[in-house]
Amino acid sequence: MTEELDLLGQDSDGGSEEVVLTPAELIDRLEQAWMNEKFAPELLENKSEIVECVMEQLDHMEGNLRRAKKGDLKVSIHQMEMERIRFVLSSYLRCRLMKIEKFFPHILEKERTRPEGEPSSLSPEEFAFAQGYMMNTETYLKNAALKHMPPNLQKVDLLRAVPKPDLDSYVFLRVKERQENILVEPETDEQRDYIVDLDEGSQHLIRYRAIAPLVASGAVQLI
Q: What positions does the domain GINS subunit occupy (predicted)?
């Protein structure tokens, strides 16, 4: 795994720029996305390009293994590494699907009102899944219950019926880049806002809402 891979990223102006990663850096990006997705209460921006590059890299590794000598110790080591990468990739995708199923009305509403140019939380496949899941849910509710109720009760507002992600839940994080003047809002009316600085390498337990932009930018890593 020594060749470099091309990955499109966002530059400071919001445009696309090509980022060249080694396979090791690519897997590190996948693991970071996986950890953030596991511990964030909301659905994060999709990392479909990382997923696609990792799948291509797995195909490449499988091709190398087929050409390798049988009985070579390196083959067993590479097979274990491939299984580890597959586990991380599958867990990442499952975690995202579980969030879509749990918060689908809010995710689709956020997508509908997303400003032009802002990265989408959903890949095209996830968007189709979320739409299909919502249609199936509405159909099931109608056939199982709503059609048997009085006409004035035959509609349900899924945005109100389905709980929103709890952005005020607390998360553990590790700081990758020093951050200054982070505003932490009070939990009660008796408390005041306060400002904190986050030193590189430090770890904190903090409300997700306060550091959500830092998760999106990669300045902090959820743990």
A: 73-143
pLDDT 10s digits, 68-127:
777 777 888 888 999 999 999 999 999 999 999 999 999 999 999 999 888 889 999 999
* Helices within the chain (DSSP H only): 23-39, 48-67, 73-112, 124-144, 158-161, 208-217
Is 92 in contact with 33 (CB distance < 8 Å)? yes
Residue with tokens 């293994």: 65
Beta bridge partners of 10: 16
Q: How far is residue 115's CA from residue 80's CA, in Å, rounded to a whole number?
A: 43
Residue 117 falls in which region: left (phi positive, over 0), alpha (psi -120 to 50) or beta? left
Q: Which residue's entry shows tokens 């991380």? A: 88
